[in-house]
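Researcher: Can you fold this with arginine in place?
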Amino acid sequence: MSDPQHVLAARVQAALGAAFGEPDADPVIRPSQFADFQANVALPLAKKLGRKPRDIATEIVAHLDVSDVCEKVEISGPGFVNLTLGPGWIAGQAQEMLGDARLSVEKTDAPQTAIVEYSSPNIAKEMHVGHLRTTIVGDAIARVLEFAGHHVIRDNHVGDWGTPYGMLIELLLDVGEGSEQAKLLETDPNAFYQAAREHFDSDPEFAQRSRERVVKLQAHDADTIRHWERLVDLSKIYLHKVYGRLGVTLTDDDIRGESFYDDMLGDIADELQAKGVAVISEGALCVFPPGFTGRDGDPLPVIIRKSDGGYNYSTSDLATIRYRVDKMNVDRMIYVVGSQQALHFQMVFAVARMAGWLPDGVSAEHAQIGSVLGPDGKIFRTRSGKSIKLTELLDEAVERAGAAFDEVPHDEPFDGETRRQVVEAVGIGAVKYADLSTARGSEYVFDFDRMISFRGNTGPYLQYATARIRSIFRKGGLSPEEATGPIVLGHEAERALALHLLGFGAAVHQTGETTEPHRLCAYLFDLASAYTTFYENCPVLKAPDEATKASRLALCALTLRTLGKGLALLGVATPERM
Ligand code: ARG
């Protein structure tokens, strides 16, 4: 255990047990302005026991055994216990972290089966920049939870069923599979969708055929299913092109779209009705979960079956929940989906609980994703009002990354192919990191200049930080793996860097628990800043003596590995040279 907060919490708890028989009280360990940490438990405990906080603090300190960990323990204010770690302890923990393949990040002692549902575009419809964000953030959440020791199931809940597929199939049949227009499915599915829409709106015969096709699709007519499968397969080519370029870990096997649940919908409706959870209202089968009302105060319905007999998006989500709980035995469901769908999920979760499909022990969480805005503060679109083509967006990011890359100093020149690879990693990394470092529920303005900058909390800055550490090792003529210390902490900047390194595990676990990758981003950015301060104050290759040099190289190596691992958990590549 190397996370100082955990270590101190355990020690303070032991003291609470010995002094007051309260070993389970939260020791309330917080970072401190006056020491490294402070334990704030004396105040709430004093209230509980009806005593003076300062007396409680004094007794805690009397029972506190931290001689191997802290160099100073002080009581301040009304009863805060200030704890200053000893440099020897910090160095020892950093040394252990350096020797550990997992960088001392412990696996959770309460592993769960977690399904992370992300990306989930509507196939052959509109994969817009919002889906880019759910894809990137979801992938980071999946990676982090997996590393934290959970069993993670990735799930791409694509929209691949419903009325639009009638017109899409008809257009595909009209233009022919090998045609230029059909190729759009692989390059720009949204354009294909729009073409189908135009036909549908302007050509009554096409519209009629499309409607008939929907009926055949819903009836699982063999021929229609074959065309539909073809359509879905072509769209998957597009999807996996985007995922491949983004370095996203979703594969074909992770796709379990709306169509997968289609034959369960009748059952869902019947069961809800039989249980008395759903009632017929104006010809539709509806559930009115308590607590949800519209503007006029009327109860809001979740429509399970429309009056025309068709099922809804919500019905499909209910089938999904029941399947995941019953068949996949998940403990935790994480829906990485735009915040516009917040009410939808709240209501669906409520109905699932009413129906008994979502037991208390299973958590269902909507990890809300804020919208990506254009410079005008509205949903990001092209000037002509169309949604942005993702591939063009990424191309532009890479092109701009190239320009920025040529402006920063490089140790050695790059050959064309290496430069191309590095610039691709920087451009994609910049887009991904910008998405990840913004609190996921917040909207943000898509701004190439900000995300591609080599300064500030950006992907390129962190990538560059790792490349600069590697260049120290190249200059020193050794590999990072050869830098094994021993770590000895003298300068204040060395101590601060090592202490920050020890917080990696806590940052990883906290990111997984809250499903908020921006927390890991903030940790890594602070780490890079602590490293910069260290590097500016503590010469490494020109250290005053060999022992100091060995220690500083080890700190460099540990920083490099921590930044690299952290960025890998975010799905951001780290080029060796930049
Ligand atoms: N396909 C939907 C969309 O593009 C997102 C699906 C979200 N997941 C869910 N289980 N409803 O808006």
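Model: Folded with arginine in place. The longest strand covers residues 70-76.
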